[in-house]
Amino acid sequence: MYGNVTEFILFGLTQDAGKQKAIFGIFLILYLVTLFGNFLIVMTIKTSQTLRCPMYFFLFYLSFADACFSTTTTPRLIVDALSQKKTISYNDCMTQVFAAHFFGCMEIFVLILMAFDRYVAICKPLRYTTIMSRHVCGMLVILAWVGSCIHSSAQIFLALRLPFCGPNVIDHYFCDMQPLLKLACMDTYVINLLVVSNSGAICMVSFIMLLISYIVILYFLRNHNAEGRQKALSMCTSHFIVVVIFFGPCIFIYTHPPTSFPIDKIVAVFYTTGTPLLNPLIYTLRNAEVKNAMKKLWCSKI
C-alpha cells in the first residue's frame, strides 16, 4: 500500500561528510574483497576434482549466498556515501527487503546443512556416504531455497501492507522491516510481533539447533583418536566462528522490542557486510584442502 509516499530517503550510517568519504572507501574495499573471496571459493569448488564431498558442496552455496547477500545492501551504502540525493523508490525498497531476507535466510539454512553434514560425518561415519549422497544433498539445498523463498515472501507480504503517509526518511542504510515499521502510519504492534515471530524465531531456533549439534559432536569426539579429533575440531571451530558472527547480530536485531537503537545500524553491518567477508577467509585460512585446490586453480590459470 503506497499511501502518499512513492520513495524513501536512506539516512545511512552517518550524515557527517568526512565520515561518509571514509565509509565510501572502506566499504568499497570490503565489498570488492567479499566478491573476490566468495567468487574464488565458488570457482575453486566448481573446478576442483578433490573438493567433491558434501561439505564443499554446501560451502559452494554458502559462498554464493554470501556474495548475493552482501550485494543486496553494500552497493547502496557505497553509492549513497557520496550521493547528495540518497533516495530509493518504493518498489526498489520492497525488492531490497525481499532479497535481503531471501539470501540471509538462505545463509542460515546452508549453515544448518553444513552442521548436519559434520554431525553425520563424525557421529555416523559408517553411514555417511549413504545418508549424505549427492541426491540427498541436492534435495536439501532445494529445500533451503524453498524455505528462504517462503520466509522472504512472508516478509514482503507484511511490508506491502504498511501504509506510508510521511515522513519518508529511513533511519538505516538499507530497507528492512524494523525501520519501515517506524514510518508506517498505522498501529504496527501486531505486524512487529509477526516479524519477530518470523525472522526472530528463525534466527533463535536455528542458533539453538546449531549449538545442540555442536554439543553432540563434541560428545562423540571424545572417543576419536588425537589426530581425528584435532581435524574434526578444526572444521567445527571454523563453522562455529561463522555461526556466532552471523547469528549474534541477527538475534539482537530481530528479537528486541519495536524500538530502534542507535547501535542497530552498526550491528547490522556485522551480518550484512562482516559475515560475507569473513566466511571465505575463515574457510580458506583454516582449511588446507581448499588452499591447495586454490593454488592448483591459480597455477593452471597462470
UniProtKB/TrEMBL annotation:
Organism superkingdom: Eukaryota
Coiled-coil zones: none
GO molecular function (one): olfactory receptor activity
Listed SUPFAM superfamilies: Family A G protein-coupled receptor-like
Localization, UniProt: Cell membrane; Membrane
Transmembrane regions listed in the UniProt entry: 22-43, 55-78, 98-116, 136-158, 199-221, 233-254, 266-285
Principal localisation: membrane
Annotated keywords: Cell membrane, G-protein coupled receptor, Membrane, Olfaction, Receptor, Sensory transduction, Transducer, Transmembrane, Transmembrane helix
Membrane topology label: Multi-pass membrane protein
Listed GO CC annotations: plasma membrane
The G-protein coupled receptors family 1 profile domain, residue ranges: 37-283
PANTHER family, per database record: OLFACTORY RECEPTOR
Family: Belongs to the G-protein coupled receptor 1 family.
Protein name (record): Olfactory receptor
Gene (UniProt): LOC101149534
